[in-house]
Specification:
alpha/beta, five-stranded parallel beta sheet, 11% strand
C-alpha cells in the first residue's frame, strides 16, 4: 500500500492543477446535484421485525385512514375562560371546517365532534383538533403546512393561543450555527500554534471543508431517492470535518518536518503520503468498517446514518491523499519552516539533545512510575464509567426544538392534559374471531384501564371491513419515561390472556412503542457490537504491529475510554449535571448514541494508537531497547497527536451548546471520548503499560508471524524500494541482478549476479526446477529471497505488478488440445491484453503475427536445407514440428507487446537448434529482451550471430541443496 500511496502522492504533486480542478468539478457536481434534485430529509424510525412495526404495517393495509401523517392543532383559552365558551367554540369549529377543505387533508376530528375522544382537558382550558393527511410525512409539502398553520389565525382572533404539533412539523433541515463556526476557528488556532504558519494551517481546513461539502452534496443527492434522516447529514458534517482536518494534519506535519531537514519537496510530499498517509488510510478504513458495521444491527435509519458518516470519512481520506499533495505541489518550498524557527528547531532536534519538549517531559514523568499512572488512569476512567450502569435509552420524544410551534403544542398538551397525551399507545385488535365486537372491545378496554400508569382508554374503533379495531391508550407518564416502557411491557404480557378469553390477538404500536422497541434492540446489540469492534481492532493491530500485547492493550484502552465517555454523558444528559450551563434538557440518552460512539471512537482511537506506537516499533526494531523506543516514538508523535485530539474536541464540542437535540448528545460523547482516549489512554496508559511489559510488548508467536500479512505502515518496504529504484536507475539495463538469492528460504538458489542489456539475451542453464524458478522471478511471478533484482528499471519484489505487465511468458504448446490452431493460440493472447474499448480481436492482427512467425521460421532454415513447411492461422498446432511450435509460442507472447519474453526449452539437445536461434533472431524485435531456459547440454543462443550481436549473458543457477549433494 505504501508504494501505491507514494505514486499517488507524486502524481498529485506533479499534476497539482489537474487534481485541484478535478476536485472543484466533483464538488460542484455533487453539491449541484444534491441541491438541484431537491431531496427531502425525513426522520423515519421504522424497525422491521418488531411487534410495533408489524402492527403499523398491518394498519396501513387494513386501516389506511390511520396510517397517513397526522398533526394536532392545539388551542388554549386565556386564564379564567374555557374552550367551551360560545366564542371559543365557534372559532374552533370554524378552524375545523377550514381544515377539512384543505387539499391533502383526509379527515379532521374536533373536540366537540360526536366521535371525539378525550380532546378537552379537565379544566376545559385546552383542546386539540386531530388532523389526518392523505399521504405519508414525505408527501406533506411546505405549502400544505402553511395552509394548515394559517387556520390558526381564526383561533387567535377569538383570543385563543394556537400551536401545531405532530410528526409533519418535525424540523428536518440542517445547518451550521455560530458555535460550530467557533469550533472551526478554535481548530484553526490549534493548527496555527502547531505549524507556526498561516499558510500551513489553512491547508487542513481547506481540504476538510471541501470534503465536507462533497459529502453533504452526495447525501442530499441520495435523499432524493431514499429515506435519509435529518441527523445523518449533520453527523456526517461533524465527523467529516473532524477527521478531514486531522488526516491532513498528520500528512502535512510529516511533510514539513522532512522539508525542515532539507528534503526535496516532491520527494517529501510523496513520502509523507506513503507513510503518514498509510496511517491515515488505515485509520479511515477502521472508522469506515466500524460505521458500516451498524448495518448488522438491522435498523434502517441507523444504517443510513452509518453509511452517510462512512461516506464522509471516505471523502476525507481521499482528500488527504490526493487534494492535499496537490496543494503541496502548488506551494512547494513555501511550506518549509524558516531556518531558526521553532518548527525548524523541533524537526532537527536530536532525541537527547537541546531543551526537552513537553512530550519528552511528560513521557519521562510517566516512565518514572508507570504502575502509578496505570492505576490512576484505570481508576479515573472506571469511576467515570459508573453512571453508565443506569443508562436509559430512548428516541427523541417529538417535542421539537425550543421556540418552535411543535414545542409549544407539546407543552400545551402536557400542561393541559398530562405528559402521556403526547405519546399515546395504539392497541390493534384482531376481531375476525369474535361475534360480539363492541362488548368485547369494551371489556378489553376495561382490562387495559386497570393497568398502572394508564390515564385514559378510548373506545374501540373497528375498520370498515370489521376485521381490525384500534384502541387508544394514554399513559400518565411522558413517552420517554421508564414508567411508559413498563406499561408497554405490561400490555404485551396481558396479550395472551386477552387472546385466550376473547379470541382477539392484540399488539401495541404507535410512535412511543416503536421508540421503545428500537431502544431495546439497540441495548441488546450494544455488547455484541462492542465485541465485534474490539475483535476487529485486535486483528488489525496484530497485522500492523506484529505484537500480541499492543492490540490487547489498545482494545482494553478503547473500552475504558468508550464506557467512560458514556458514563459522563449519562451524568450530564440523563442526570442533569451542568445541564443549564450546556443548554441541555435532561432526559433519556439517545438510543443509538452508545453504538454510534463506539463505531466512531474506535477509528479515532486506532488512529492515535498507530501514530504513537508505530514510531516506538520502528525504534525498537533498530535498537531492541524497549524503554528508549517508548521515549523516541512518544516525543516525535506527541505534538501532532495532541493537536489532532484538540481539533477533534473543539469541532465536536462546538455542536453541543446550540446543536439540535439529537446531535448534542452524540457530539458531547465524542468530544469527551476523544479527550479520554487521546490524553488518558494513548498518551498516559499506553507508554506506562508498554514500559511495564518491556520486551514482551513486542512478542509474537512464530507460527502467527508466518500467517499475518505484512502491512508496512511505517514505510520500511517503501524505503527499501526507493533505494533499489535508485540503484537500478544508476545501471540502465533490461535486467540487473546483484547478490540475489532465488527460490525459497529453505531451498535457496544463488547468490547470482548478472546484467543484461536491453534487447539482449539471458540464457538460464541448469536443472528444470532451478532455471524455471529464476525465470519466474525475473518475470515478476515469484519474489526473490534476498539481494537486489531489477527488471526494466523496476525493483523486485516491490514492483512485481509493473514487471508482470512488461513480461510475457511463451508457453510452448507441446501438449495442445487436439484441434487448437495457430490462429486460436495467437488470438487468445491478443484478447487477453486488448484495450477495454475494443470489442474484439482483429483477424488481420492474428494473420500478421502468424505470417511473421512463418517468415521467421523460413529465415532461420539452414542454407540448402529442405524448405520449411508453411502454416497459416488454420493450421493445427499438433501438425507443427517442435521448432515451429516454439516460434509460434514466442509470436503469441510478442502479440502482448512486452519488453521481455520468457521461454523455457526442453532438456533435449535438439530442442535448441541453430535454426531455432536464427528464427528467434528474425522474429524477436531488437528492443525486446529474451530470457531462455536451457538444459546443460543444449545449444546456446550464440549459435546465432544476430543474437550474439545483441549481447548474450548466461546464468547457471544451482540450488544449495543440489550443490551440497554434488
Amino acid at each position: 500500500m505504501a508504494l501505491l500511496l507514494h505514486r499517488i502522492g507524486r502524481f498529485a504533486y506533479r499534476r497539482a492543477w489537474l487534481v485541484i480542478v478535478t476536485w472543484v468539478l466533483a464538488l460542484g457536481a455533487l453539491l449541484g446535484a444534491g441541491l438541484g434534485l431537491g431531496g427531502q430529509l425525513q426522520d423515519s424510525f421504522a424497525i422491521p421485525g418488531t411487534e410495533s412495526q408489524t402492527a403499523i404495517d398491518q394498519l396501513a393495509a387494513v386501516f389506511p385512514q390511520t396510517a397517513g401523517a397526522s398533526a394536532k392543532a392545539v388551542v388554549e383559552a386565556p386564564d379564567g375562560e374555557t374552550v367551551d365558551s360560545p366564542d371559543a367554540r365557534a372559532a374552533i369549529e370554524e378552524m375545523e371546517a377550514e381544515l377539512e377543505d384543505l387539499d391533502g387533508v383526509a379527515s379532521v376530528l374536533g373536540p366537540f365532534d360526536e366521535y371525539a375522544g378525550d380532546q378537552i382537558s379537565g379544566d376545559e382550558r385546552t383542546a386539540y383538533i386531530q388532523i389526518q393527511f392523505d399521504g405519508q410525512v414525505t408527501d406533506v409539502t411546505p405549502e400544505m403546512l402553511d395552509a394548515v398553520t394559517a387556520t390558526g389565525e381564526i383561533g387567535e382572533e377569538a383570543g385563543l393561543d394556537v400551536a401545531f404539533g405532530g410528526d409533519v412539523f418535525q424540523e428536518t433541515s440542517f445547518g451550521l450555527t455560530v458555535t460550530e463556526i467557533f469550533g472551526v476557528l478554535f481548530a484553526a488556532v490549534v493548527l496555527i500554534i502547531t505549524f507556526g504558519s498561516l499558510l500551513s494551517a489553512g491547508m487542513p481546513l481547506l481540504t476538510a471543508l471541501v470534503g465536507v461539502g462533497a459529502a453533504s452534496g452526495g447525501i442530499l443527492m441520495v435523499a432524493a431517492f431514499a429515506t435519509v434522516s435529518s441527523t445523518a447529514p449533520m453527523l456526517a458534517v461533524m465527523i467529516g470535518l473532524a477527521v478531514g482536518i486531522d488526516y491532513a494534519l498528520f500528512i502535512l506535519s510529516r511533510h514539513r518536518n522532512q522539508l525542515a531537514r532539507g528534503a526535496d519537496p516532491e520527494d517529501s510530499a510523496a513520502e509523507a503520503v506513503a507513510t503518514a498517509g498509510g496511517a491515515v488510510v488505515f485509520a479511515g478504513l477502521t472508522v469506515i468498517i466500524a460505521l458500516l458495521g451498524l448495518l448488522v444491527v438491522g435498523i434502517p435509519f441507523l444504517s443510513v446514518m452509518g453509511v452517510a458518516a462512512a461516506f464522509a470519512v471516505l471523502i476525507a481520506v481521499i482528500g488527504a491523499v490526493t487534494l492535499l499533495p496537490a496543494l503541496l505541489g502548488v506551494f512547494g518550498r513555501k511550506l518549509a519552516p524558516k531556518p531558526g524557527s521553532r518548527a525548524h528547531r523541533r524537526a532537527n532536534a536530536a532525541d537527547d539533545g537541546g531543551k526537552p519538549t513537553m512530550g519528552r517531559r511528560w513521557v519521562d514523568l510517566v516512565l518514572k512510575a508507570p504502575v502509578v499512572f496505570v492505576v490512576l488512569v484505570v481508576g479515573l476512567l472506571g469511576a467515570a464509567a459508573i453512571p453508565a450502569a443506569s443508562l436509559d435509552l430512548n428516541l427523541p420524544n417529538n417535542a421539537g426544538e425550543p421556540g418552535s410551534t411543535q414545542r409549544e403544542a407539546y407543552e400545551m398538551i402536557e400542561n393541559g392534559f398530562g405528559p402521556g397525551y403526547n405519546g399515546p399507545l395504539i392497541i390493534t385488535v384482531d376481531i375476525t374471531q369474535t361475534t360480539d365486537i363492541f362488548d368485547d372491545l369494551d371489556a378489553i378496554g376495561a382490562q387495559l384501564a386497570e393497568l398502572d400508569d394508564v390515564a385514559y382508554v378510548g373506545d374501540g374503533l373497528p375498520n370498515e371491513t370489521v376485521d381490525t379495531a384500534i384502541i387508544q391508550v394514554v399513559p400518565e407518564s411522558a413517552p420517554d419515561t421508564p414508567e411508559t416502557k413498563a406499561l408497554v411491557e405490561e400490555i404485551r404480557e396481558l396479550a395472551p390472556s386477552i387472546e385466550e378469553e376473547f379470541g382477539t390477538p392484540i399488539a401495541v404500536t404507535g410512535y412511543t412503542a416503536v421508540a421503545i422497541d428500537i431502544s431495546n434492540r439497540l441495548a441488546d446489540a450494544l455488547i455484541p457490537f462492542a465485541l465485534i469492534v474490539v475483535g476487529l481492532s485486535i486483528v488489525l493491530l496484530l497485522m500492523v504491529f506484529r505484537s500480541v500485547f499492543v492490540p490487547i492493550k489498545a482494545a482494553l484502552g478503547f473500552l475504558l475510554s468508550a464506557f467512560g465517555a458514556i458514563g459522563v454523558t449519562v451524568a450530564i444528559f440523563q442526570w442533569g449535571w451542568f445541564a443549564d450551563l450546556l443548554h441541555i434538557e435532561p432526559g433519556p440518552i439517545l438510543s443509538f448514541l452508545p453504538i454510534l460512539l463506539m463505531a466512531v471512537l474506535f477509528g479515532l482511537a486506532m488512529d492515535y494508537e498507530v501514530f504513537l506506537v508505530s514510531g516506538m516499533r520502528e525504534e525498537f526494531v533498530k535498537t531492541k531497547e524497549p524503554r528508549s523506543s517508548i521515549v523516541h516514538g512518544f516525543q516525535h508523535a506527541a505534538r501532532v497527536v495532541t493537536a489532532a485530539a484538540l481539533i477533534m474536541f473543539f469541532v465536536f464540542f462546538a455542536f453541543v451548546p446550540e446543536g439540535s437535540g439529537v446531535i448534542k448528545g452524540i457530539a458531547f460523547a465524542l468530544a469527551v471520548g476523544v479527550v479520554f482516549d487521546a490524553f488518558l489512554v494513548r498518551m498516559t496508559l499506553v507508554p506506562a503499560a508498554m514500559a511495564l511489559a518491556g520486551k514482551a510488548a513486542w512478542w509474537l508467536p512464530a507460527w502467527l508471524a508466518k500467517r499475518l500479512p505484512d502491512v508496512d505502515i511505517e514505510g520500511e518496504g517503501l524505503r527499501a524500494h526507493l533505494e533499489q529504484e535508485e540503484w537500478a536507475a544508476a545501471r540502465p539495463a533490461a535486467i540487473n541482478v546483484d547478490e540475489a538469492v532465488f527460490g525459497l528460504a529453505e531451498r535457496p538458489i544463488g547468490p547470482l549476479e548478472v546484467e543484461v542489456p536491453a534487447g539482449g539475451v539471458l540464457a538460464v542453464r541448469g536443472e528444470p526446477v532451478d532455471r524455471r524458478v529464476v525465470a519466474a522471478t525475473l518475470a515478476g511471478r515469484l519474489a526473490p529471497v534476498s539481494g537486489r533484482v531489477a527488471v526494466q528499471g523496476t525493483p523486485l519484489p516491490s514492483g512485481q505488478g509493473r514487471v508482470m505487465r512488461q513480461v510475457a511468458m511463451a508457453e510452448v504448446a507441446s501438449d495442445a488440445p487436439t484441434g487448437t490452431t495457430v490462429g486460436e493460440l495467437i488470438a487468445a493472447r491478443l484478447d487477453a491484453t486488448r484495450p477495454w474499448y475494443r470489442l474484439g480481436v482483429s483477424g488481420g492482427q492474428v494473420r500478421d503475427w502468424t505470417e511473421g512467425a512463418a517468415r521467421a521460421l523460413a529465415a532461420g532454415a539452414p542454407a540448402g536445407a529442405e524448405p520449411v513447411a508453411r502454416f497459416d492461422v488454420d493450421t493445427p498446432l499438433a501438425a507443427l514440428g517442435a521448432e515451429a511450435r516454439t516460434v509460434v509460442a514466442v509470436a503469441a507472447a510478442l502479440a502482448e507487446r512486452p519488453k521481455l519474453v520468457v521461454l523455457d526449452l526442453d532438456d533435449e539437445p535438439s530442442g535448441a537448434s541453430p535454426a531455432l536461434w536464427a528464427a528467434l533472431a528474425a522474429l524477436v524485435p531488437a528492443t525486446v529482451t529474451l530470457i531462455v531456459g536451457l538444459g546443460i547440454a543444449s545449444s546456446t543462443p550464440d549459435a546465432s550471430p544476430a543474437l550474439a550481436a545483441r549481447g548474450i549473458r548466461t546464468l547457471e543457477p544451482v540450488s544449495r541443496s543440489l550443490e551440497a549433494r554434488r
